Amino acid sequence: MDFNLTKEQEQLSDTVQKFVARQYPFESRKAILKSKDGWSREIWAGLAELGLLGLQVPEEHGGIGAGAIETLLTMTAFGRGLLVEPFLPSAILSTVLIRELGSSTQQENHLPKMAAGELIAVPAHGEPTARYELAHVSTSASRDGDGYVLTGEKSVVLHAPSADLLLVSARTSGSIDSEAGISLFLVPRDREGVTLRAYPTLDGQRAAEVRLEEVKVSRDALLGPEGEAFSALAAAFDVGIAALCAEATGALQASLDATIEYAKTRKQFGQPIGKFQALQHRMADMLMHVEQARSMSYLAAVRCTETNAKVRGKSLSAAKVLIGQACRFVGQQAVQLHGGMGMTDELMISHHFRRLTAIELTLGDTEHHLEKFMRSEGL
User: Fold this and answer.
1) Per DSSP, what are the bridge partners of residue 194?
2) Strands 194-200 and 147-158
3) Are 104 and 83 in contact (CB under 8 A)?
4) Of 133-137, 213-217, 253-257, 335-339, where does mean pLDDT reach its minimum?
5) What is the rounded CA–CA span in Å between residue 316 and residue 283?
6) H-helix or E-strand containing 124?
7) Is 181 left (phi over 0), alpha (psi -120 to 50) or beta?
8) Is the CATH code 3.40.50.2000 the one for domain 231-376?
């Protein structure tokens, strides 16, 4: 397999890294987190100008129709800078769902606006009792004339407070854990009957619990065939897992770099702590985890568009398990090697630690994906 980047991919990587370095210094990020929205619309506009919001959007709808490798390069750079904008839920998950399930009219109405940064859409799928099981949907969608009435609750909907559009999964038929019978609906966030309880997540990003109380939507709000959304949801979330793995790799590398630099300057007993052999061994172990995570992020990127759902799911779960373990090990070691300062807001390492912890829990934690992988092996 050829791991060499094309000239265009190298240019993309260089452009994104320079954008992050220039527009997202540590102090600017702290100010963004403290702002009312918790993210920057100016940065969002900049991402749109670079074409990054259109990575998953076909060219005919104003995007660049890029592939998984371009997404990997972008998310790796975002991981280093710890961008808090709603890129994953809107520019990846929701974009893929509308691209794959939407009618030509729905695609024309939404994808160009999303690529231009004029519309933010986020999936509202997870539920309080789902425990990461994708097919666990209790939110109901019952027929109401030519439309539907949605009732239920969605949990930890990332960036829901700033979204214009929610992609709500609801059950039109079948039992609560059945893959068949799940439908997807386009619901404006300000639609009557939709209420949000917003809060910051442990890494400073914003999320919300979403309650739907007899929310009425038209037939045009249905995304794809009724009751057949599960396979598209699984495919989109696998693309999201690959993107998340790439982001983790960037954050892991940044954590390692910061730790090595700190060990060169922090002195104890008259010499830099980086000269102590025991600490050198710990940093070597960190390096090993970072490199293994990088390899698995490549695997995730290559396999995330595999048409065989079982092969794809197995590979993505394997990547998420190993990268989840790396997030925990490298994050904890980085904080410990920085001492008490490692937990303060004054150092970037504490922000990387919180983001790595959040990544390990997002789209299925390590335990969930380990169990999923074992089931795929018949264990």
Assistant:
1) 212
2) unpaired
3) no
4) 335-339
5) 27
6) strand 121-124
7) left
8) no
- Confidence band for 266, pLDDT divided at 50, 70 and 90: confident
The Cα 262–Cα 342 span in angstroms is 10
Contacts of 63 by beta carbon, 8 Å cutoff, 6+ apart? 51, 54, 55, 56, 57, 111, 115
Structure confidence by residue, pLDDT tens digits, 88-109: 999 999 999 999 999 999 999 9
Confidence of residue 332 (pLDDT cuts 50, 70, 90): very high
Please provide the size of the chain in residues.
379
3-state secondary structure of 175: coil
Smallest CA-to-CA distance from 215 within 126, 154, 142, 324 is with 142
Pairing type for strands 182-188 and 267-268 reads: unpaired
- Rounded distance between C-alpha atoms, residue 115 and residue 56, angstroms: 9
Cβ(365)–Cβ(344) below 8 Å: no
Q: For residue 371, what are the CA distances in angstroms to 125, 149, 374?
A: 21, 35, 5
Instruction: State the Rg of the chain over Cα.
Output: 21
The pTM score is 0.95
Domain spans, the chain: 7-120, 122-226, 231-376
Q: Match domain 122-226 to its CATH number in 2.40.110.10, 3.40.30.10, 3.40.50.1910, 3.10.100.10.
A: 2.40.110.10
The one-letter code for the residue type at 271 is Q
Give the span between the Cα atoms of 201 and 156, in whole angstroms. Answer: 9
DSSP secondary structure letter of residue 6: P
Q: What value, to the nearest 5°, has the Cα angle with vertex 26 and ends 23 and 28?
A: 55
Q: Write down the pLDDT at residue 269.
A: 81
Residue 84: name the closest of 344, 284, 354 by CA: 354
pLDDT the model gives residue 302: 94
Contact between 177 and 135 under an 8 Å Cβ cutoff? The reply is: yes
User: Residues 156-167: what's their mean pLDDT?
Assistant: 97
Cα 22 to Cα 34: distance, rounded to the nearest angstrom: 20
Is 346 exposed, middle or buried (CB count within 10 Å of its CB: 0-12, 13-18, 19+)? exposed
Q: What's domain 7-120's architecture?
A: Orthogonal Bundle (1.10)
Question: Torsions phi, psi of 143, nearest 5?
Answer: -65, 140
